[in-house]
């Protein structure tokens, strides 16, 4: 009923909007979009570039005689400068059904560097063949794009190898450099330290090696997102990370980084994600991390970190939702202060050397949906309420703590007793040890809410939404005109 009325009420408004569109359409069509000219050289360069990616099978110039006008190329945007059309954006790759796809022998054409107003270049899933002749990123001419290029992305190009060309250091107007899931190798060139206005640096999922250059972290002080995950970076984190005070997300997971975490990390007041899992970081949690008051996700699992939890002011990290210290060699007891992290959803302390009792207060964390304590040497009595075990199910794990038993006031239905934990001797009614045989380590990570690695550009998708909306509007106008 309500829907009916509101739709009815909206109808005149919708009609009005459409009329307005028609009016605008007529006004605008006095000066058709394609009337603005395009330099012959710019147009030819575009054809060569596109042809290089999509292959000789397409006659690009025949299909798109007016690429900034009535025959817009999917993924290509233009803008007017001094009454001439110039190319500003090129997005290559299978994003929509009708978008341009690369041919197996896709290649860069040198004419790319003649598109002097190019602001954004994105190559997605294009150089995919690993058997074909290897493709590398051109090591020259990028300086010709330096004045305008702001976004540069190479994503999911398994056939793209070689190193980051040092000439990228001349792209000083770049605010986003994303090189994700390619087959790039080598070290981070020192020259990238010149990209002083860069906001996002994402190099994850390649085969980069060497250490993180201190000059990079000294100079790129406007960085908001740094993701170097899933590579082979070595060495310790330089103290100059402390200069990256704008940083919101820092993902260095799945590398071979070692040494101690620098105290200077504590200066990153806006940091919400610190992900260092699967590295060789040691020497414990620096006290200074207590200053990371914005932190939501702290992920340090699978590092020989060591140290303990008791000397750390957990209560200062009041926005923490994920704390992953699984398999980090930590010792000592679980401090009750962890139960002061009221927003905690995911707490993994499994496979460490923790001793002592399990704080009962953990059960009162309102959002907690995962708690792993298995594989420690925790002792005493688990005194969580029965509805806690019911609520958590297999996302509560405490097996392999030999001297731990559970106590319950009610008789737990068999399926909800904590798996692999004995009921305390003095109140043992039922043997629940083998009551839940399907639970195992393998399930552990499936429902964890840890975010995936960063760096997926939303602008890429936004672009296509804009295209889609435009298409719908044009279509509606045409229908109405008939
Ligand atoms: C491509 O199309 C243009 C215009 O239709 C035509 O002049 C040209 O010969 C075509 N080229 C090829 C290789 O078919
Ligand atoms: C750091 O940036 C400055 C410009 O702000 C530049 O002159 C210097 O060369 C850069 N340092 C490195 C190591 O690239
Ligand atoms: C941290 O974030 C706040 C709020 O977004 C902002 O005002 C502040 O400038 C940021 N600090 C730094 C060092 O970028
Ligand atoms: C932790 O918080 C308390 C009170 O909010 C404050 O006094 C203390 O300085 C903080 N410690 C750190 C290391 O930020
Ligand atoms: C904690 O999160 C809340 C809500 O998301 C936000 O308003 C607040 O600024 C955050 N606190 C810090 C210190 O970042
Ligand atoms: C667990 O701690 C007890 C003492 O509390 C000790 O005897 C035992 O060896 C420890 N077990 C392991 C596996 O560390
Ligand atoms: C406990 O640890 C042993 C070896 O340390 C392992 O074989 C077993 O699967 C673990 N889990 C349970 C539930 O016993
Ligand atoms: C994950 O969550 C879904 C729905 O919340 C549930 O159906 C599924 O059984 C859970 N899987 C595990 C392994 O806990």
From TrEMBL:
Residues in the signal sequence: 1-29
InterPro entries registered for this protein in UniProt: Leu-rich_rpt, Leu-rich_rpt_typical-subtyp, LRR_dom_sf, StomDev_PlantInt_Reg
Location(s) in or outside the cell: Cell membrane
SUPFAM superfamilies: L domain-like
Top-level taxon in the UniProt lineage: Eukaryota
Main subcellular location of this protein, as a coarse class: membrane
Biological process according to GO: response to other organism
Record's keyword terms, sorted: Cell membrane, Leucine-rich repeat, Membrane, Repeat, Signal
Name of the protein described by the UniProt record: Piriformospora indica-insensitive protein 2-like
Species of the source: Dioscorea cayennensis subsp. rotundata
Taxonomic lineage from the root: Eukaryota, Viridiplantae, Streptophyta, Embryophyta, Tracheophyta
């Amino acid at each position: 009923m309500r829907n009916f009325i509101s739709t009815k009420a909206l109808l005149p408004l919708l009609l009005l909007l459409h009329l307005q569109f028609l009016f605008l359409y007529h006004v605008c069509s006095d000066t058709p979009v394609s009337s603005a000219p395009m330099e012959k050289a710019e147009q030819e360069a575009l054809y060569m570039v596109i042809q290089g990616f999509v292959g000789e099978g397409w006659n690009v110039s025949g299909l798109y005689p007016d690429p900034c006008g009535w025959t817009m190329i999917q993924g290509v945007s233009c803008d007017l400068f001094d009454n001439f059309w110039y190319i500003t954006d090129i997005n290559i790759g299978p994003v929509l059904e009708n978008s341009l796809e690369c041919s197996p022998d896709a290649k860069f054409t040198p004419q790319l560097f003649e598109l002097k107003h190019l602001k954004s270049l994105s190559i997605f899933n294009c150089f995919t063949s690993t058997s074909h002749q290897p493709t590398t990123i051109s090591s020259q001419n990028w300086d010709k794009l330096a004045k305008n290029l702001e976004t540069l992305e190479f994503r999911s190009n398994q056939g793209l190898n070689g190193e980051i060309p040092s000439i990228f250091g001349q792209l000083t107007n770049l605010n986003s450099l994303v090189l994700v899931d390619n087959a790039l190798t080598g070290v981070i060139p020192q020259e990238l330290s010149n990209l002083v206005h860069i906001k996002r640096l994402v190099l994850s999922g390649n085969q980069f090696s060497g250490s993180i250059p201190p000059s990079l972290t000294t100079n790129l002080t406007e960085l908001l997102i740094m993701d170097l995950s899933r590579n082979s970076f070595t060495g310790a984190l330089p103290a100059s990370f402390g200069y990256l005070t704008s940083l919101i997300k820092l993902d260095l997971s799945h590398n071979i980084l070692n040494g101690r975490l620098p105290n200077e990390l504590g200066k990153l007041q806006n940091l919400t994600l610190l992900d260092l899992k699967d590295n060789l970081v040691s020497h414990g949690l620096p006290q200074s991390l207590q200053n990371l008051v914005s932190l939501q996700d702290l992920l340090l699992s699978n590092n020989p970190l060591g140290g303990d939890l008791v000397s750390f002011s957990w209560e200062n990290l009041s926005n923490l939702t994920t704390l992953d210290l699984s398999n980090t060699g930590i010792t000592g007891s679980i401090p009750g202060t962890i139960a002061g992290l009221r927003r905690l959803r995911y707490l993994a302390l499994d496979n460490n050397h923790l001793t002592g009792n399990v704080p009962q207060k953990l059960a009162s964390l309102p959002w907690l949906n995962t708690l792993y304590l298995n594989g420690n040497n925790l002792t005493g009595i688990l005194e969580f309420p029965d509805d806690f075990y019911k609520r958590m199910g297999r996302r509560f794990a405490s097996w392999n703590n030999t001297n731990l038993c559970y106590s319950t006031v009610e008789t737990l239905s068999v399926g909800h007793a904590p798996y692999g934990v004995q009921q305390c001797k003095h109140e043992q009614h039922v043997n629940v040890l083998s009551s839940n045989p399907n639970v195992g380590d393998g399930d552990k990570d499936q429902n964890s809410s840890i975010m995936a690695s960063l760096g997926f550009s939303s602008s890429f998708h936004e672009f296509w939404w804009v295209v889609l909306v435009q298409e719908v509007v044009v279509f509606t106008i045409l229908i109405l005109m008939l």
